Amino acid sequence: MSSQSTRPTFDPHDPLGIDDLLSPEQVAMRESVRALCRDHVTPYVGEWFEKGEMPTVRELARELGKLGVLGMHLDGYGCAGMSAVDYGVACEELEACDSGLRSLVSVQGSLAMFALWRWGSEEQKQQWLPHMAAGEAIGCFGLTEPDQGSDPSSMRTHARRDGDDWVLNGRKMWITNGTVASVAIVWAQTEDGVRGFVVPTDTPGFSAPEIKQKLSLRASVTSELVLDDVRLPADAVFPEVTGLKGPLSCLNEARYGIVWGSNGAARSCLESALSYTKEREQFGKPIAGFQLTQSKIADMAVRVHNGRLLALHLGNRKDAGTLLPQQVSFGKLDNVRGALEVARTARTMLGANGISLEYPVIRHMTNLESVLTYEGTSEMHALTIGQAMTGIPAFRG
Length: 397
Hints:
The protein is α+β, with helices and mostly antiparallel strands. The protein has 11 helices and 9 strands.
């Protein structure tokens, strides 16, 4: 029996002792990502958010490349070849800083790079992946359209053959990294079904105007992709994959990162609320000493750290090769919804200061409104789980 002196002490930042389940290497990697955020993003992200810009996105990409987090869960081609849990831990730290930063990494690694790694030809992989892993080239992923989101099978962007070439026409919308990308992975209808194309962004007919007037993910580059008679060589198409299997496999990778990342945003809100309420005094004592405040803190802590356990469980399943898409939907639905609840509660606990960019809470809260609906709305994930539970599809009447 252990003695009283050897028992662990309760850590408010890790109340369930989940860090004990991480390897020393994972903890060290987390600290490296946290340091990058502290040095290159945290001091400036409030101002970027207020101005609606991420002016150092290319420099950030290179710093992230040096750290090895771009495509870090992929093997070869300059990628780090780390585990799914490693990647999740990094996503948690990135989004604890800002959802826009995690989106930059997620779109680069889990969408654009994963599409190339999983479905590209050897020539396509060799041409792009090493540069993308180093942050020297930024990628984007063109699937969502102005009128097609949850139902990508109805996309209007199309590609037709013209001799040995392909000619693409269409529009994509809400594309992270589009304006600063060197390469776009564009999904289009063809006579053979949906296919993926590797589109260098300097190709004539391609443009990516940045979307302005956003009130969420403001410290992130969000774009429209415009394809007007974009002519590509025959080898620009992914050689084997046809249909929605290609893009949906990539979305599943991105959703996995969101399970971890959204919980990082929630953790940041909890830590802000805990720190603030211990310092803010009303009626002669810190507001953390009042029962209602402590009840809120307890509920938030349970939500955040249950979310960590869920993310870690799904990460272990992914590393074991047993993670199912429906389980990713489970995690994305619950952790994002829970993170938004935590952010909203934290906002109230900070009172008027809760709407100030001096604190991260309002920024996380508005960002999570986007995270709730991108990579599959909460309704679509609920229906995915519902179909898995009942065996009855409800997507169409």
